[in-house]
Specification:
The chain is mainly α and 475 residues long. The chain is 64% helix and 4% strand. It is built from 20 helices and four strands. The strands form two sheets. A two-stranded antiparallel ribbon has the order 1-2. It has a two-stranded antiparallel ribbon with strand order 3-4. The longest helix has 37 residues. The chain is elongated.
């Protein structure tokens, strides 16, 4: 308790994502890479014995951290310290660990491996959120609700159709993330300036074998290939691309949660609120949208933090510079942990949204008379009225009704005014027929069904059986 701990580990992020950016994951991956390198070098003819490979594998997951820490105090180099510690355990393999490689062989390839695993987890969670919103959209596809433009009442839509707008943005994000995963490649074994000169020395200038070394390492780590050219490091543009897609997810999450916060203010839809939950320490009646507020706060962090990737990619000098290391160690891990936190809260919110149909209908009926004026005019024309005269009359009635609402604090009495106006010759039954909300939602129900059937189901089909359920929140 006497040291700073990241809120992502203590409050927000899942154990799975936290582990991916742990020391244990990093150093175990280093050892996997050293094993892959030794195996590939042996396959290509270097004098490496099977028992040396077996010795490396024997201690792949049993890391002697104390030895590495003590060694680093002396040599001030983390990679060399872990090579030393590995050699203390795998004594037979000690002479061939890290043979021909530079530090970036383990550090950079590990970063790519971890980012890919983190993106795969992110995609799974994002698909799970989409699946929950899909169910919500189908459940409420027919329920009319006020549409808003400029947060002013506009034509009606449906609750389910509005949800498809949220879904569509998340699907765009999922597509981008999947594209990055499918196209990620390793750095491979490139050497100090990317020329593979040390490996050319090892393989007696056999260029074909040096090229094959990269291919073998990629295959052993289950990647489709390596960057064809590089400096000492993989292009930091990859970090920028990855952080950008996390920013895209954050943007969609921010938009969704802001909409829910506004709807909660209107008392139309609320995020989950637990039986014993306290909304305010002072105002006991309050039901604050704290989950969605947390989403918007974390989303701003991700959107801002993504700029680190862009600036670091732009700042690299020639074949390598070290101002990337400290920055990316923070920016990449924190962005992933933040997105994981956001998606965890989204799973909780989208799985427990509370809809209040009576309030939604009340708000509709306060505005619908204004929206129905064209239909009312058409009904009156059928009764023999003059369209232009009726238009002017209903315009005046609408202004008066609006004034009654805004200035007097009264109800929208437009319908009563029209009923009393002999020009319209309409009875209450005819007028109320013109005020049926479902007549004003256009193709919203059909659009919802079509979008889900034609796009959403296909986008998340591969995740069937992998969807995650609600995550328990930590306050």
């Amino acid at each position: 308790m006497d040291k700073y701990q990241s809120p992502f580990n203590t409050r927000y992020a899942s154990k799975e994502m936290s582990f991916l950016f742990s020391e244990d994951m990093k150093f175990k991956t280093w050892r996997k890479l050293w094993i892959a390198l030794a195996e590939a070098e042996k396959d290509l003819g270097l004098n490496i014995a099977d028992e040396q490979i077996e010795d490396l594998k024997k201690f792949a997951d049993n890391i002697n951290y104390e030895d590495a820490v003590e060694r680093e105090k002396v040599v001030r180099h983390d990679v060399m310290s872990h090579i030393y510690a590995y050699g203390l355990q795998a004594e037979k393999a000690k002479p061939i660990i890290h043979l021909g490689a530079t530090s970036c062989y383990v550090t950079d390839n590990t970063d790519i491996i971890i980012m890919r695993e983190a993106l795969l987890l992110t995609c799974r969670k994002l698909a799970s959120v989409i699946n929950k919103l899909k169910d919500f959209a189908l459940q409420y596809k027919d329920m009319p609700t006020l549409g808003f433009t400029h947060f002013q009442p506009a034509q009606l839509t449906t609750v389910g159709k509005r949800a498809t707008l949220w879904i569509q943005e998340f699907i765009m994000d999922l597509s981008e993330a999947e594209h990055i995963v499918e196209n990620m490649v390793l750095l491979g074994s490139k050497g100090t300036t990317g020329t593979q000169a040390s490996f050319m020395e090892l393989f007696d200038n056999d260029s074909a074998k040096v090229k094959e070394l990269d291919a073998l390492i990629a295959k052993k780590l289950e990647f489709k290939g390596v960057f064809p050219v590089s400096g000492q490091t993989y292009p930091r543009k990859l970090d920028s691309i990855v952080l950008n897609v996390l920013s895209l997810i954050a943007q969609s999450a921010h938009k969704f949660s802001n909409d829910i916060r506004l709807l909660q203010h209107l008392k139309e839809i609320e995020e989950p609120f637990e039986k014993e939950q306290i909304g305010s320490s002072a105002m006991a009646y309050k039901r604050n949208p704290m989950r969605c507020e947390r989403i918007t706060g974390l989303s701003r962090f991700v959107i801002a933090n993504a700029q680190n990737g862009a600036m670091t990619a732009a700042e690299q000098w020639f074949e390598r510079t070290l101002d990337d290391s400290s920055n990316k160690r923070l920016a990449v891990s924190e962005c992933f942990l933040a997105i994981d936190s956001i998606l965890g809260i989204l799973l909780n919110v989208t799985g427990g949204l509370v809809v209040y149909p009576k309030i939604i209908n009340k708000h509709i009926m306060e505005e619908l008379p204004f929206m129905a004026t064209e239909n009312i005019i058409m009904q009156a024309v059928k009764k023999g009225g003059d369209r232009q005269e009726l238009h002017e009359s209903i315009r005046k009635h609408s202004m008066d009704a609006g004034r009654n609402v805004k200035e007097e604090g009264g109800q929208n009495d437009l319908i009563e005014r029209v009923l009393k106006d002999p020009q319209f010759k309409l009875d209450e039954e005819a007028l109320m027929a013109a005020l049926t909300p479902s007549h004003y939602v256009g193709r919203a129900p059909e659009q919802t069904e079509e979008y889900i059937n034609d796009y959403v189901n296909k986008a998340i089909e591969k995740y069937q059986g992998l969807f995650l359920e609600d995550e328990k929140l930590r306050v």
